[in-house]
Amino acid sequence: MATVTNTIRRPATAAWLSVLAALSFLSVALSVVLIFLYAPRDVAQGEVQRLFYLHLPTAWLSYLSFFIIFVSSILYLVRRHARWDRLARSAAELGFIFTTLVLLTGSIWGRPIWGTWWTWDARLTTTLVLWFIYLGYFLLRAYVADPERGARYAAVLGIVGFVDIPIIHMSVRWWRTLHPQPIVVRSEGPAMPPEMLVTVIVTLVAFCILHVFLLAVKYRIETTRDEVIELRGALEQHG
Amino acid sequence: MSAWSQFTAIVKRDLLLEWRARELVLGMLVMTLLTLLVFNFAFDLSGVQRAASGSGALWVAIVFATLLGWGRAVALDRQEGAWEGLLLSPVERPVIFIAKLVSMLVFVTIVELVALLVLAVLFALPVLQPGVLAVVGLGTLGLCTLGTLFAAMTANVRSREVLLPALLFPLAVPVVIGAVRATTLELNGFTGDAAPWQNLLGGFAALFFALGALTFGSVTEE
Amino acid sequence: MENVWYLFAGFFLTWLILGIYLFSLRRQIEVLGSELASLRGEARTSERQRSPESATASEPNVS
């Protein structure tokens, strides 16, 4: 009885995953050391500028996650294999967390620098809209009763959403720049000293490894969840 | 039946049903007029800044009316299994998509014309000029292409009234920004400055028209 | 130098959120793992009940 349809491909073995976990931990630890001990103090903004090292990678990863959703969505609609939907679901959860982090770090960084918790500058605004698109993605999956339909609908949203993001970004940027700005924000200086650049790159790489690790773990969880659902369904059928 | 005659058949049916019942357009119309009224109290649409507030009020009204319209249209369609019947018929999905889009455009356009008249008469805004009408047309097209796709998606979902706006609002941000900006500029006479926004709206409508037609099949696989 | 509070708040919140997420992932693994195990046990017993002569114990793919 037990062969589950859509053969659930067994992903990474536990050993591989542990290596990834260790690697994530080490690289993140290294980046923290660099952030606080190696990167120089910013002349204009002071110590607070170090939040930038968290802000940039989380921003990259929130967009990267949506790109993963985009690709998996297309593959799911074309191939209809469960693994692509699982990947999309996993990337969505991760992406939502990273997007929340971007908004939080941006806001906390902005408060001492701009004097306000929020500003409708182009990047923050686009990230906020992205956050809402992620939210819509989860609401859609939550409210659609049939999982297969939910997967299909979510895939369409993933594709439409991703295509829309550059347009949203462009329109928000025009919205801000074709009108005079009350505050001019310069998040980075004219040129980044090499120590800063190194720190940024190391932190970015560390977060990418962390992202891959979390994605792999989440994907395994979703695989198990699908197996549970299949087994439960089969048991109910055969009694 | 050719695709064209299928298309016209669907559109004619929608228009005929609406002509008999008239609840869709009337509902949208009431919503639009009330929104404009409330906005007038909230933002003083007859003051000095009325081009900007008027344009904002107009587009908020259009967005809410469109959402309401989609909710009602989708519910009406599913009465007596008309929608399921349509899906079972041999009509190509993109044809259904375009037909539904056009039907909705007709209804929304009627409502918008009344709204524009109200803005022109009651708030003395020069809305009845080609520039403004072009922006309204392009913006509406963009909203409705997204609306057709996601209304079909959320048709059988519980809490559709919450889910459809939750999906549509973030995705329609470029349309809202572009349409409000362009309308304000046109109302103030800066037609040249409005051009990039009009291009954005046009591109948006074209892009999501294509994407919507392509993915509509995946959404309506019942 | 008061801005340092913001710096620490930002870092603290980030790691807190990531930590909570990791913790929730662990919980998901535990819950799903035990559910899967119990379901598999049920499956085996129900299969044995249905075909007691069948020698093949068709185990689903095990990691």
The largest pleated sheet of chain A is described as: none
**Through-space gap between termini of chain B:** 22 Å
Q: Output the helix-strand order of chain A.
A: HHHHHH
Q: What class do helices, strands and sheet pairing of chain B give?
A: mainly alpha
* Average pLDDT score of chain A: 86
Q: What's the assembly state of these chains? A: heterotrimer
Choose one word for the global shape of chain B.
globular
Low-confidence parts of chain A:
1-12, 180-186
Provide the β-strand percentage band of chain B: under 5%
Query: Greatest chain-chain interface?
Result: A-C, 42 and 34 residues
Strand content of chain A: under 5%
How does this structure look, described?
The complex is a heterotrimer of chains A (239), B (222) and C (63). Chain A has 239 residues and is an all-alpha fold. Chain A is 77% helix and 0% strand. Chain A has 6 helices and no strands. Chain A has helices at 14-38, 52-79, 82-114, 122-143, 147-177, 194-238. In chain A, helix 1 runs antiparallel to helix 6, helix 3 runs antiparallel to helix 4 and helix 3 runs antiparallel to helix 6 (194-238). Chain B has 222 residues and is mainly alpha-helical. In chain B, helix 3 packs antiparallel against helix 5 (93-122), helix 3 packs across helix 8 (173-187) and helix 5 runs antiparallel to helix 9 (191-219). The radius of gyration of chain B is 18 Å and the shape is globular. Chain C is mostly helical. Chain C has one helix at residues 4-50. Chain C is rod-shaped, with a radius of gyration of 23 Å. The N and C termini of chain C lie far apart (54 Å). In chain C, 6% of the residues are buried. Chain A binds chain C through residues 1-4, 7-8, 10, 13-14, 45-48, 50-51, 54, 58, 97, 100-101, 104-105, 108-109, 111-112, 210, 214, 217-218, 220-221, 224-225, 227-228, 231-232, 234-235, 238-239, and chain C through 1-4, 6-7, 9-11, 13-14, 17-18, 21-22, 25, 28-29, 32-33, 35-36, 39-40, 42-43, 46-47, 50, 58-61, 63.
